[in-house]
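Dear colleague,

As promised, here are the two records you asked about, laid out in our usual form so they can be pasted straight into your sheet.

NAME FIELD: protein one
SEQUENCE, THEN STRUCTURE:
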Amino acid sequence: MKGLIPSHVVFNGRKGALTGENAMKAKVGETVLFIHSSANRDTRPHLIGGHGDYVWERGKFHNAPAKDLETWFVAGGSAAVATYKFLQPGIYAYVNHNLIEAAELGATAHVKVEGEWNDDLMKQVTAPGPIVGQ
């Protein structure tokens, strides 16, 4: 602790708490509210595949929200809230944008969104599948 180098940076209390079978669930067309707080460290949440439609940084609901943020700031000892309306089905990753913390220390959550694909927004050329190596 003296070096301020954590062994884990997690969401919902433990590594993997919101991934795989424990992923959050939503449906196409639903607006989801994300609440993010941090006791000691600054963090920068990001929704891969989406963004913050409306974001209230530093827990200030009296202020007008920022709109359409790719990444937002949560100061240590503060909180932030973001909403996002899911437009396409799939698995969305909610991560700490310090990607080392997301990938190596557990600061990753998933949202599994179910519903019909909308070709008017984005045409799917090939169905999802494994990435074939070289």
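NAME FIELD: protein two
SEQUENCE, THEN STRUCTURE:
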Amino acid sequence: MLRVEKPWPVAVLVLTVALFSTACTGDGEDRPQVDVVGGDKTSSASVSASGAPPERGVVEPKPPSAVQVDVELKEWATEAKAARVSAGGVYFFVSNQGKQPHELVVIQTDQSPDKLPVEGGRVPEGKVKIVGEIEPFAAESKAGKTFNLAKGKYVLICNIAGHYELGMRVALTVE
């Protein structure tokens, strides 16, 4: 029989793991999980809303007629290599250069990038017009997806809790 002389280190470890797991499981919203393609690098130590480490991003093929916008996600910035694009199919090629998972949410709005509503550390997706989203994907990986964008003003954000408020947002104008 295993006898533990000092049980407090085990209790502290169990409590720490429980708190970390709770803090990293998201905000309780039912968010669809994205199917991903594996890669040769391992993902970061962060976990997704399902409790599993986020997978590498999926790079869908770029349609020949789509305009490409390269986006870099970092702690704590979102950088788009284009500020203006033509209306129609817009292919977002997104590189997560951070050390933790990030996502890309495309929101159509006339508000400036730093003026979106925030609740619980996130932009409430039911209170803005989302036209496309690349679900959270692992650090040091890439994702690509096409969205049909009408003329107007857009904001590209990472909407993982706290990331928008830390500066992960950028404007995009579609002409």
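A couple of things worth noting about protein two: The chain has a mean pLDDT of 79. DSSP finds one helix and nine strands in the chain.

Best,
R.
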